[in-house]
Every structure is written in structure tokens, then in C-alpha cells.
């Protein structure tokens, strides 16, 4: 796809980093509002974290029976069909904020008057590293684990921990033990779905090399430590919780620098709220440019 105004000497009115639900919604609305814009995405497909979910997403109104992967594919197809200028496989290495915004990638730099961070979150790994026996985060990493007849330790006490424990049991795990350092954060409904799970609350020491927790051996770990905001280098816009601080319009303390979706921790994170936040930011940028 041809891109608008991408030479070093030209400047786009708006540029969006991140092609998840928030970034796609923002780019689509800006494009339809007549704003010359460009969406850049580090991976080879749009859709954000939904690309990693093989599970039916029951929380999005009107998409019954569709997995997260299907939702991501629909987002990608909509951007392509709508003619929204975008670039894939374009990872941002740094952002400079002098005299507007310069977004630097491996192969090229882009300048923009308004910059939108829709970079979302990524699973928090803590001290662990992905391996054939250690999955970091829900979705495809967990589905790749061999669990049938195995002893699985789920580290974390939130919704994803209990969801993944349930899926692992359905796939034939011999035993699932959930370790949470403090009180359980998962919804009671999710906890009630797996009464057979062994739940341990309190301090624990998990050793990846020995695949043991408090000395007890396991066959695999599922690390469900939640998510952390993914912010490009060169920006100091995060609050004490590690998320981008924005006002009610989605703008940071730096004029012209916006953020939307999960990277902001602004609303309860999900596909629908992220898309709505992206639309809100697009409208505000359009009004500002007028």
C-alpha cells in the first residue's frame, strides 16, 4: 500500500503506532474524517493481542462464535478494505519530540504533528523466559504447552490464571496448581468453574531451571502475571503504575501526543473499550486540526 507523506522532509498531520483495536479504530476514523494519517505496526498483521487468542471472545457484542484470531483478522481486513494507509513489519526504535514528533524505525523516519500511542500491553514475564515448558501469558503460548497427563503450575491469581487453569484441565492435565502471592483477584465466577484446582496463597519461590515451586516438581509453568504497557523508547510519559498518563480526551501532558487503549490503563481493558478510546482520540485530533 502506498503511504502518504513519508519522506523525511514532510510531516503527517497524524501518525498512529500500534495496530490493535485502539490503533485500528483511531486510524479508520481519522481516515474517514479526511485526516491524512498513517498507521504503523511492528508485526506482520493487525489485530493486537487478539491475534494470540484461539478462544471464542464472548465479551464483544455481535461477534458470537468468533475467536480472538477471527476478530483480529476482521480488523485487519477492515483497514485494508477501507484504504487506510498502513505499514506492517515496522517496529519503532525511538520517538523524538523536538519540533513535532519524529518516529524512527529501522529503515525510515516519519514526522507527524500529532502522534498517537496505541502500542497496548504485553504479558509480564517477571523473572521467567519463554521455553517449551514455560508459557508467558495466555492464548497461543499456553496452547503450545504439552499438558495432557502433566502437572501444571499456574503462577498468578487473576482472571487469566483461572481461565488458563480451566483450559489446561479441559485438555487433560493431571493436576493444576495455582500459586498467588496475595489474595486472589480473579472473579468468583471463574474460581467456581474449577473447584478441582489446587490453590495456594502466599509467598512462593518458583525455579524455572528445576521446574519447581517451593521445591515441589512440575512439568510446566504458565506465567500469568498480567500485562505491562509497551511504550517506545524516547518517551517519558508513564505514571507510577507504568501506563501512559492521559486526560479525558486521550492527550498526554505533551501537546499533540495522544494515547489510547490498553497502554493508558484508562478504562477497563478490553477490545470494545480500546476501540472506543481510539475513536475518541481520532475525533479530538480532527477537531484540533480544524
UniProtKB/TrEMBL annotation:
InterPro entries: FAD/NAD-bd_sf, FAD/NAD-binding_dom, Ferredoxin-NADP_redctase_2
Positions of the FAD/NAD(P)-binding domain: 15-184
Protein name, per record: Thioredoxin reductase
PANTHER family the record matches: THIOREDOXIN REDUCTASE 1-RELATED-RELATED
Keywords, comma-separated and alphabetical: Flavoprotein, Oxidoreductase
